[in-house]
Amino acid sequence: MLKQIDKLNQKKSEWTFLSNHAHVLICLYRDQELLLREIALNVGITERAVIGIVEDLENAKVLTRIKTGRRNYYKINDKISLRHQLESHKTIGDLLKLLK
After folding, report:
1. Domain housing 87
2. Is residue 37 part of a domain?
3. Which regions of the chain are under pLDDT 70?
4. Looking at residue 41, what is its pLDDT?
5. How many domains does the chain have?
């Protein structure tokens, strides 16, 4: 019985209110010089997953990649509306300012 309760408590703590896409965006908002490897460590996902998320955000025009030498930096388009109908009246900028 105690093992089952432990498993339930672990499952409860595994989810978060924000998606990994939001976590990656927050990391880039706080420090646009972070390496994708550093973002992966901060978010707790693989570097490959971060690469996929960054590609998703670029395709959605939320991020623009800026190449400087061998480094990439990302400019956030904070005017883009949030995607879900419940939040579509707010922008990426509104969310990021709230979570800064």
Report:
1. 16-99
2. yes
3. 1-13
4. 98
5. 1
